[in-house]
Amino acid sequence: LPSRLDTMLTNQVLLLLLMLSVLWPSSALPFAPGNIGKLFGMAESDGRILQRSKRGWMWNQFFLLEEYTGNDHQYVGKLHSNMDKGEGNVKYVLTGEGAGNLFLIDEKSGDIHATKRLDREEKAMYTLNAKVLDRNTNAELEADTEFNIKIHDINDNAPKFEKDIYFASVPEMSEVGTSVVTVTATDADDQTYGNSAKLVYSILQGQPYFSVDSENGTIKTALPGMDREVKEHYQVVIQAKDMAGQMGGLSGTTTVSITLSDVNDSPPRFANHSFRVTAAESTDIGGAIGRIKADDPDVGRNAEMEYSIVGGHDIFNIITDQTTQEGVIIIKRALDYESKRDYEFRVEVKNTYLDARFIHGLQFKDYATVKVTVEDVDEPPVFTRNPYIIEVHEDTAAGSFRRYSIDRHTDLERLFNIDSVNGTITTLKALDREMSKWHNISVVATEINNPLQTTRVPVFIKVLDVNDNAPEFAMSYDTFVCENVKAGQLIQTISAVDTDEPLVGHKFVFSMSATNPNFTIDDRQDNTANILTRRGGFSRHEMSVYFLPVVISDNDYPIQSSTSTLISCNSEVLPFSDGLTTGALVAILLCVIILLMIVVLFAALRRQRKKEPLIISKEDVRDNVVSYNDEGGGEEDTQAFDIGTLRNPEVMDANKLRRDIIPEMLFPFRRTSPIKDNADVRDFINGRLQENDADPTAPPYDSLATYAYEGSGSLAESLSSLESAATEGDQEFDYLGNWGPQFKKLAEMYIGKSPDRET
């Protein structure tokens, strides 16, 4: 074929020609002998088509798809000779690779079949020989001819990577596009035919940190500023897919473990910028008195540090421990507690190795303040002067000396004593600075030979502080924790006090005596501490009181500490907490509504009771029963009311305005009048009824009116004594005893005064 056609096109053309050779007679085909030259465009010579020697075979190559899944034998192709006239006299014989077992040929028709599934990856091409014999004489009609059966590839193999897991590293803070590693996959399918072996790479896991080149599998960084101190290890999953990545292609994956290597991009930093160190004054020169440390998140040589004292120091020096990267403070000159007790200096820390790419804009050094407190050590006494010069008069008598004493009026508690000979003052009792800081005494010196010669001098004794008191809580704390509290919740801030007074001030350290599963303590470094919850889910029913021992230590010498117990009570959750159900809220709301209705109803009743009565004037007592709590002035009292008004109801007809009020009935007892016809009372009531119906000013509601008019035919008549006889002897009051218990008191008053009974 012409060279411009690729191999794939050649194979397809040959396969098509093979199929056509079976369907049409050889003479009708364009590729029959004599026509092949025309088909392939052979050049003509002298205007004539070039002829070649006549051959009987049609093809010398067949094509067969691999992995055939049919139940019958797979058809390969057909051999046909021009000597075969279709009369059955021709016999086709097949020899070569696989002939007879893998490939079978029909002796009469020349059809070739494959008996087994073929795998191109095992063998891509088979070479066979065919010849044509006379069936009757076995004479060779066609010379032995060689041909090939080529196995066509299908996409039956997935891509495979060389390793299941790759390991790679890339420096942190690398620029985007920095190459990390290249992973390669292979496909056993035919790379020269179709897209079965054309691979495309993609990333399944690891975005947005990394990307992969789709053609060659090179993994590159895709995110700027990746910091090893934030995340050091990454797992990246790469996929290789054949069929050029199209749907239906087979794929394989591999895992790439990528580690960010360290660069010096983090400067050293002190966690605390203030350190306290104590040193005994007896420490040898060159001895270490303390260590300080800065933190550098880098590793290796990028984390190596160097310490130094800013401006240097006469007494102290600092060196670097290369193993622990700590700064060791040592003594350059001897310390003296009596001369100076406190020192302070600044320490600088910096990296020994710097990366020029990251020093811009960052200060790769840090500073901290170190305070050194010198501790006193019991040393031998030292003379204040060396030598002493004493002056004595030459005429001083032998054995002359003085006697010393303390004026006990200035030392009532007898705390001190003095040697009468040499004047040495000593203590008789232990002194307590917290009770009294100063003691003022008077020392008297008297001449032995002349007691009248005395002198007095005041002595001021200052009691120096010794750290003999442990710190304690500044106050009594009432601590509560809610049931719905979360872990890490602040529930109390505590502080401490100490009666001692160190020279450098108080510095308390708060801690726990043992690990507590419920609470933790956070020392704030300012003599206070926060009490935090370590967990949530506190339940009042499980435990309502927790005891939290807190250890408080000072920073003086010798160190004093005390353990105080903080009591934490478990308080209930607020009613409207997050855990309240909807049903409970509805029930509470209904209760509130009912309570409001009761309050409103009660207020309405009280308002109705307090309504202003219709009778405004207290002096208008007509048609009403008015009760009094006093007994009145007897018969001579005529100011209470007009008795004539009660007996003559016509007098009240002049006033047409009626004012009603609900009367207070003191005596519900009723007594039926023996008079059957109470015409005057009936007329009185009817008149009042008509007057009320016709009165336009009457109230629009029904009301109950009670009148005191008893009628002119009452058996009791008037109970008043205003119209009684002149003397009590003219009256008989025995009938009052028959009126019932309501008139018992009245009967006792009048019957008891009867003249007949007085005798």
From TrEMBL:
Give start and end of each Cadherin domain: 81-161, 162-270, 271-383, 392-473, 473-566
Q: Has UniProt tagged this entry with the keyword Cell inner membrane? A: no
- Pfam family of this protein, just one? Cadherin
GO BP of this protein: adherens junction organization; calcium-dependent cell-cell adhesion via plasma membrane cell adhesion molecules; cell migration; cell morphogenesis; cell-cell adhesion mediated by cadherin; cell-cell junction assembly; homophilic cell adhesion via plasma membrane adhesion molecules; morphogenesis of an epithelium
Q: Name one GO cellular component term.
A: catenin complex
Q: Where is it localised?
A: Cell junction, Adherens junction; Cell membrane
Membrane-spanning residues = 584-605
Q: Which GO terms describe its molecular function?
A: beta-catenin binding; cadherin binding; calcium ion binding
- Signal sequence span is 1-28
Alphabetical keyword list:
Calcium, Cell adhesion, Cell junction, Cell membrane, Cleavage on pair of basic residues, Glycoprotein, Membrane, Metal-binding, Repeat, Signal, Transmembrane, Transmembrane helix
State the function annotated in the UniProt record: Cadherins are calcium-dependent cell adhesion proteins. They preferentially interact with themselves in a homophilic manner in connecting cells; cadherins may thus contribute to the sorting of heterogeneous cell types.
Q: Which PANTHER family match?
A: CADHERIN-23 (PTHR24027), CADHERIN-6 (PTHR24027:SF322)
- Report what the protein is called: Cadherin-6
Which gene name does the record give? Answer: CDH10
